[in-house]
Specification:
This protein is of the alpha/beta class and 331 residues long. It contains nine helices and 15 strands.
Amino acid sequence: MMAKQLTWGILGTATIARQSMVPGIIESKTGSIQAVASRNLEKAEAFAKEFSIPRAYGSYDELLADPSIEAVYIPLPNHLHKEWVIRAARAKKHVLCEKPIALNQSELEEMKRVCDEQGVFLLEAFMYRHQTRYAHIKEAIENGAIGELRGIRSSFSFNNSEALENFRMKKAYGGGSLYDIGVYPLSLARMIFDEEPEAITVHSYSPASHDEVDMTAAGLVEFQNGKFLIFDCGMWAAYRNDAEILGSTGRITIPNPFTGGSEGYRLFQNGDEQQVDVEDWNHYAKQADYFAEVLWGEKSLSAGVKDSLANMRLLDRALASHENRKRMVLL
């Protein structure tokens, strides 16, 4: 007998959908993609053919009107998230929306209100949270493997500076490195420390040549009892994707913390270095399964819209800090 399936529609043919989330849903145990939509029907049809998706639509509204679709994945540019999450909710579709889920906390509060009113499930697509190694890392920390937590350092950057027409280079579209990849270290620190920060200070560079979006940003996030996150992100720097968790007696380094999973992590204790291997599989597929299992009541919600609101509040302060060049208090 075929296992229960959640029927998905894909709103848009973005690279993240083609390369990551659509293959993830296909690989998942719970998902079945039944339709894809684009503002260009030919693009939707080509995408559908590539992944053997049964139906292609030339508008997002057509897909939302399809009664067979239970959930939609939204990989649209950042400034379109609010509009299409709300439209999907009013069409009674559950929503998995790419990060950042909104442009600010106020937008997300409105999105949450509509989803709650319509009785639909809304989740932000932070796929890295579903990597098995994070449960192992948190358990190691709780068991005292690195002593008391002191801080986290994380970098995430790539060089896309020549792509001036990309939405990431458009201020009105929610462009900039903080929105695009800075959200990952912010989310990681909150997850590892399991608390909300007290203040944030961000230094950035937003040149006129790139529509004044932050092409690079570096920040200090202050947590309780002296704990900290030091992070940087950028869209015109060499590729980096790393994190280090510092304790009073040891440290943990995480290779490819936001895009990997199968690399495990390295534990440093008393001068000794240990590679800790963790079996894992596609975290996009796991995210799809998590979405379905929470929706069906088979798994408890560990990081939902409440967590996204907290992360968006921190991102709001990060953006205010870089624009005003001052420390922003959260508590």
